[in-house]
Amino acid sequence: MGSVLSVICMAAILASTLPATPAFAAEEPLSVSETARASAVATTTDRLNLRAGAGSGYEVLTVLELGAQVTILDDSNAEWVKVRTSSGQEGYCSRQYLNMGAAAVSDTLKLDTKSYTNTTGSTYRFLARVTAGDDGTAPTVSSSNTSVVTVTYAGKKEGQGYLYDIKLVGSGSATITVKAHGETATLPVTVTGGSSGGSSSNASLSLDTKSYSNGPGNSYRFLAKVSGGSGSAPTVSSSNTSVATVSYAGKDSRGYLYDIKTVGPGSATVTVSVDGK
């Protein structure tokens, strides 16, 4: 059973007094050295718009998938990064959804798995190899969305590397980030709904908020209450991440908490699902 929350992100009223020329027209692309072009890379942490300029008002050139690697051409802007895709297309992405530490090939840190897809409730173990400067300290790990995927350290395998267990909690996508000695590696994970069981059909879901409106740069926390079901946290998604983003914020005695951040003018729908429905 799913519920939706309508989000409207309004441009500031003062915009009506500005000149006809768009505010973003003054933002000029900055130059970058060929050395930086060849070495700096990033990985997307969600589906992400590639825009023609450094601002949410620019044309969307294409949509990059979760886990896509891009070459960084200029990261001097606090909010937008100029990148080049693997197909050679250049544009701007929101810094918020880029893992700037990711590298296409790391000399120090390597994972034995490039990506993983399975159904809710599945588990998987992967290996992280520290190929230089291994002092016996396990690399740190994190999940970009713990309502979809969780990750825990499972010990060291002598002579090979460090083991980690991932558990697929709810439908959606997440990125596992592994860090060691200044190097970062990522593992994109996609979770699909598992086979239907008795618990999912008994789940009921309600939200404490029906709609939310505010200007760009604001945040709001809402509550999802679940009765019955498997006990897994509901999954969330935004229909337009250039307008509003949503992330899991934990659980309290009332239910599950989620944070909305308004990014740019427009409308978006936040969808909340429990047990894959």
N- and C-termini, Cα separation: 5 Å
Decide which structural class fits the backbone: mainly beta
**What integer is the average pLDDT?**
79
Shape: flat
Find the count of extended strands (DSSP E, 2+ residues).
Answer: 23
As a percent range, the share of strand residues is over 45%
What strand line-up does the widest sheet have?
7-6-5-2-8
Estimate the helix proportion, in percent: under 10%
Largest sheet: 5 strands, antiparallel
* Gyration radius, in Å: 20 Å
What order do the helices and strands follow?
A: EHEEEEEEEEEEEEEEEHEEEEEEE
Low-confidence stretches: 11-39, 102-106, 195-201
Quickly count the helices. 2
Write the layout of secondary structure elements.
Elements: E1 2-9, H1 34-39, E2 41-44, E3 48-51, E4 60-64, E5 69-74, E6 80-84, E7 90-94, E8 98-99, E9 109-111, E10 116-119, E11 123-130, E12 140-143, E13 149-157, E14 161-168, E15 172-180, E16 183-192, H2 198-201, E17 204-207, E18 211-214, E19 219-227, E20 235-238, E21 244-251, E22 256-262, E23 266-273
Parallel strand pairs: 1-18, 10-16
Antiparallel strand pairs: 1-23, 2-5, 2-8, 3-4, 5-6, 6-7, 9-11, 11-14, 12-15, 13-14, 15-16, 17-19, 19-22, 20-23, 21-22
